[in-house]
Write a structure and sequence with these properties.
- The N terminus is likely disordered.
- The protein starts with 18 loop residues before the first helix and ends with a helix.
- The chain has 148 residues and is mainly alpha-helical.
- 80% of the residues lie in helices and 0% in strands.
Length: 148
């Protein structure tokens, strides 16, 4: 072997492998190490976030249960009060009045929701819709050019 063709004396063939394959191998190894570190960090941070999310969900469901129980008890009290004051203790008409008030409230909320959604549907996600329209225009304008 001629002196010009010999590798340097203190070079490691793995570290100095020439060419595209050596560069790709080193790049892939660095990317794998980076992804592994990001995954470990995400697991550490995600574990704490998951525990916090679980605690918030449990607290929210518990408070919803307590509010529902309180609401039912309050409605029993309202029916009893209405029955005692206007129907001489008759519970059926008092319950009908309270139920009718609830139905009116539900109908009013439903109408409000329908009006709000119908009027705000044009303004919801305005920037996203604009981007989609621009993408659609770009795709339709570039489609005939790409078939040539």
């Amino acid at each position: 072997m001629s002196p010009l063709m010999q590798p340097p004396l203190n070079s490691d063939p793995e570290k100095t492998s020439a060419g595209v394959t050596g560069t790709l191998r080193r790049l892939l190894a660095a990317a794998v190490m980076y992804l592994e570190a990001r995954f470990r960090l995400a697991c550490m941070e995600g574990g704490g976030a998951f525990k916090l999310l679980a605690a918030v969900i449990v607290a929210a469901l518990t408070s919803l249960l307590f509010a529902s129980i309180a609401y039912v008890l309050l409605m029993f009290a309202v029916v009893g009060w209405v029955a005692a004051h206007w129907w001489q203790g008759e519970l059926a008409p008092a319950a009908a009045v309270v139920a009718a008030a609830h139905l009116l409230g539900a109908a009013a909320l439903a109408l409000w929701a329908i009006r709000t959604l119908s009027t705000s549907s044009k303004t919801l996600f305005h920037a996203t819709r604009h981007e989609f329209q621009q993408d659609k225009l770009w795709l339709t304008s570039s489609q005939p050019n790409s078939r040539n």
